[in-house]
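User: Show me an example of a complex going from sequences to structure tokens.

Assistant: Sure. Here are the input components:
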Amino acid sequence: MATDNAPFVRLAGIRKSFGAVQALAGVDLSIPAGRMVSVVGHNGAGKSTLMQVLAGTLAADGGEIRIGGVERRAGYDVHAAQALGIRCVFQELSLCPNLSVVENTRVVHPGLGGFGWRRRCRALIVEALEAIFPGHGIDPDRTAGELAIGQRQMVETARAFTEAGTKVRLVILDEPTASLDADAASHLLRFTGAARAKGIALVFISHRLPEILGHADEVVVMRDGEVAGGGAARDFTEERLVELMGVVREAASEGGRAEASVGALRVEEAGTAGGRLPLRLHAGEIVGLGGLAGHGQRAVLQAVFAAAHGREGHWRVRGSVAYVSGDRQSEGIFPLWSVGLNTTVSRLRALAHAGIISLWSERTLAEEWRRRLEIRTPGIDRPISSLSGGNQQKVLLARALASAADTILFDDPLRGVDVGTKRELYRHVAEAARAGKAFLWHTTENIELENCDRIYVFHRGTITDEIPRAELSEERLIRASFATGMSGATGMSGAPGMSGAR
Amino acid sequence: MLAEIRLPPASPRVLLPAAALAAMLVLIFAMEPRAMSYFGLTLLLNFALPAVFAATAQMAVIAAGDIDLGLGPFISLVNCLAATWLTTRPAAGIVALALLVAAYAAIGALIHLRRLPSIVVTLGASFVWLGLALLVLPTPGGSAPAWLTTLLAVHPPGVPLPVLVSILVGLIGWLLLMRTSYGTVLRGIGGNPRAVARAGWSLLGGRVALYAAAGILGVLAGLALTGLNTAGDATVGTQYTLVSIAAVIVGGGEFVGGIVSPAGAVIGAWIMLLTGSLLSFLDISTDWQLSVQGGILILVLGLRALEQWRAA
């Protein structure tokens, strides 16, 4: 095989930017056939972007992609990647919920049509499921939507290893064990050995460092869109990985914000299930929810929001609550309304007298917030779609602040906002907190956590650390995000002796 | 009769409407035993033909996660063309019908390429179809081609024509959409378009295929209606828009997510049709038919929501 002398994949100097944000700043990566390379890094380190470039779903801005010893130039896309035997397992995203397991297998094999395709697909997927997850108990005629999340993940993983026509050469496993139980996860990890023995190269992305160190052949650590280090997995320890993932920085260098004067309790967990650290939020406080994206931070925000409206008993919330989403297109703005209407919509009840909205007070309110947040628009009657993304996000913040809510929930609201606007908004948030508002702020950008008084770090749905701002360091943050150095390295039980407080 | 509609193995969604239809038939037969005969069924189900074609046309669009609000007027337009051009200038008539199918495919392409909401595009198209129908035939009239009326008056041995055609439509639809591999991909588009595209399929091609199928079935619905009415009328098809949507949903389909079933759509069309007969056998004015049809739709959706709520 040609792959004996040259690695199956060699990426050199891969660059990719999204607007002003550089996601990949010249990344080198080689993946030999029959080896498992693990890519680790914190939020925004560039792992997903790199994998998308490799899978052909995203075109790189620059750099060299060599696969199977041949340079792939412009035009390297999903089709090309698939024809080369590159498969990608996304996190339970790429099954059609209305199709059966068998039919979903057919969708990824364009060459599998013709008479008797159902039988062939069934044989393929059943064989792969049996090989990877013996005793999986999945009926291949069930529709994907009927399966539990773990089962869907199993089907997706197994499907990536089915072969029809093209041989599987490389499988990218993006957090493949995230929704599997311990049994299935160990089956999968054992199977990666068998796959490697067949010459299949694997990329393994996981937030469970013991899994990586115990099973990968090589480790590549990414930070800020670059490779921060790497080598044979056996030469690494969890300590060393954490160290490479983030430079230990001086905590909260920008001393702009004085210690918060802690006021009345606004949000509190009533009885902590699963023994995690209890979450509390006081008036005048900015509390950050950190950790890797998708580890339960959003669930907390949504639960608090539901509790404030009496639909959830697990949280005690005092006062009113407003929610600012980072997904402004789908759950933020009213795209056809003006800037002014988008600002005041949260306050209409207070603006109305006997059910009739006073247009004059509405305008005054909108003008006031435009001035206070310096929203750049020629006038509040302009459509919101005429604003830049950052200014649209300002309008959403203005809406939350104008609503007079006591607590404001931030669901990564500054995603994709330029640095200048971010700075301004940080200032406004700090100002509002001084005036007694409480903020619960989920962000995927660690640097943003420096604006918080306290940070709760999440790992797999539980809080693994509570960091006061004075003690915030990237190292401690990453350690808690990956739940290393805690009792029971999986982090399921949280820190000892600190649970059950209520 | 129902047993002949071969159901896919895992489709409790279709079994429920099938049971409802069976109950309706039993009720009708109990009240009017003569309806159980060959000619009784032919009379009872005559208008099942356009309804079945319309329901499967709508189903093809709903499979892509879209909805077609222009189907009724489209059927009217086909009816007007069939009662005029197809009789007097058959060649021009056939070309016109082929162009209509192409127009449907083009609507599918437009919706996909411009990312437009199908509900708006097809609503706009409905006015175009109505306008064209009025241009072709300003006042009700014309006459169906003789071959078409003869075709619809055929009495096949053993099984009445509407029953036979319904079963065939359900069976062919099931084979094409549920059993062929490309049909599976087409349904996948309604379920998770990104996944289908990522696997290397053309979403444009899929949508065009589904809309073209809807166009063909819409033309068949219009022709069947013409053969039964033997004349043209620019407003005759209007009701089919909502009846077809209701038939798909009552037959186990969903508005979103590519969850559809050809057998279910056929059964749904029968249920919608038989509400009228049931009312007249019960001595209730058929003016209530639309209300009853709407009521059934709300009932089905309500029960389904209840089911999901209980399952959650």
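The lines above are the inputs; the final block is the predicted structure for all two components together. Chain B has 15 helices and no strands.
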